[in-house]
Amino acid sequence: MSQSTSSADSSTPSILSLDEQRALLRRLRSDILTAYRPHLQEGSGPIRVMARIVAELEQTCHAHAISDDLIRSEIVNRTIGDIDLRQVVECEGEPGGPLDYRILADELGIALPGEQLHNYTATGETYLWLREQMLACERLLLKQGFDPRVYDIYGIGNPVLRGWLAAEMGRWGIEVTHRNVHLSLGAMDGIDNVLRGLAHIARTQKKEQIAILFPEPGFGVPEWQAMSYGYQIHRYSTSAENHFKLTGEQLDQVLAENPAISVLYLTITNNPTAFAYTPEELNDLHAVLRRYRESGRQVFILADLAYIGTGKPEEDQARMATFIESDVLKHTIFVSSFSKTHTLTGERLGWVTCGDPDIAVGISVSWSNGLAALPGEWQLRFMAYYRLFQERPQLGEKLRRFYRLRRTQLIAQLRAIDEQFQLFDQIYIDDDATVYNWSKLKEGVDAFSLFEKTGIAGVPGSGFGYDDAYIRFSIGVIPIILKDPL
């Protein structure tokens, strides 16, 4: 869909008063919501629809010469989870100190030398350091007989970096070698390759049907991927009573009723709910799967670790420890990335770890058929970032503190808004992880009406296979302003 716009030049000052601009903006906001509401479930789904609404509304407002300050206060994009470090304004301590989050873009090598970032001039030290490390890593690879500039017949990435990432898994107690690890262009690419690879294995074993179980609410992209590879999709709607997590009893029931299920997609720390499985809850699931395997039925866990590392380290460690037992590890495929844990969404630095090296070999056909070879320059960048995080582990803790600050501020903002508009039935407190808030709306309220009243755009529950009585907000892209947005 497209929205009609004025021919006004957005650089031209508006002839309307501030109150007239605000009234116009709110009318435009109401009009675009009316136009889009019937199309929420079409095409790419509710997440991208809501994001598109925000983008088109901002463009329309600029075309009507509405002031930028007013646009920022009346249109608040909380749809996409990416953290834009260039937009960070928070500083809890001394400028340049450990709690100055404005300098994260500089510390993570995103800010260019001399770039201006909210009253801070980036040094570019890390930006340049990463490039020096890329050079050093290329020399290291050439010395070990791997040339990243030529065709890689295996297509799964250089063995040096894969070995480093195997060691990274080792810090969780997951003991593997580089043969268990394949590189991926972020987590979504990794999941796609795994699903395609497992479908290939099923075909070679002459299985008539391969099915996968998705607990919901959950990240929707893997469902689309699985459908494209011919999986039979099974969804299980979890409950608020269990903090939207699948229980062992529920898993047992679903597996008993659906004998074709051979893959369980499990986000250990959940998007959208921001709740995480406890070790006890994971062990309950493992016990059920162990019982089925002992009877001859093979069921893999596709464990999405996108947000492992955003929570409390000791709690993440305890969660991951449940996968160490050999019979559990052998039937688990982990998907990891630096996208959310280290705010590097645009870098697409991910990897897949198979507990069973034979499964790693079996699914590798997905890489050779999909990419032929992973980009050499990208692998060098990946290696440089790995070295950065090994050398400066304090960056991970600083990011966790930053996420916690924004989640806390968002909850406070939502509560203040609720006092004025009575929009929420419950504003959930998370498990101190991820970059989201998941809350329940009052009867008669949905993502559209909330956006119309507050200017805050969230993603309805249907974007995650759930009820539109729920909504997900992101702490990414823009800071949390602790004041009434109206």
UniProtKB/TrEMBL annotation:
InterPro entries for the chain: Aminotransferase_I/II_large, AspAT/PAT-like, PyrdxlP-dep_Trfase, PyrdxlP-dep_Trfase_major, PyrdxlP-dep_Trfase_small
Any one of the GO BP annotations: amino acid metabolic process
Cofactor: pyridoxal 5'-phosphate
Gene3D superfamilies in alphabetical order: Aspartate Aminotransferase, domain 1, Type I PLP-dependent aspartate aminotransferase-like (Major domain)
Pfam families reported for this sequence: Aminotran_1_2
Residue span, Aminotransferase class I/classII large domain: 196-475
Source organism, top-level taxon: Bacteria
Molecular function terms, GO-annotated: pyridoxal phosphate binding; transaminase activity
Keyword list, A-Z: Aminotransferase, Pyridoxal phosphate, Transferase
SUPFAM superfamilies referenced in this protein's UniProt entry, alphabetically: PLP-dependent transferases
PANTHER family: ASPARTATE AMINOTRANSFERASE
Similarity remark: Belongs to the class-I pyridoxal-phosphate-dependent aminotransferase family.
Protein name: Aminotransferase class I/classII large domain-containing protein
Protein source organism: Dictyobacter alpinus
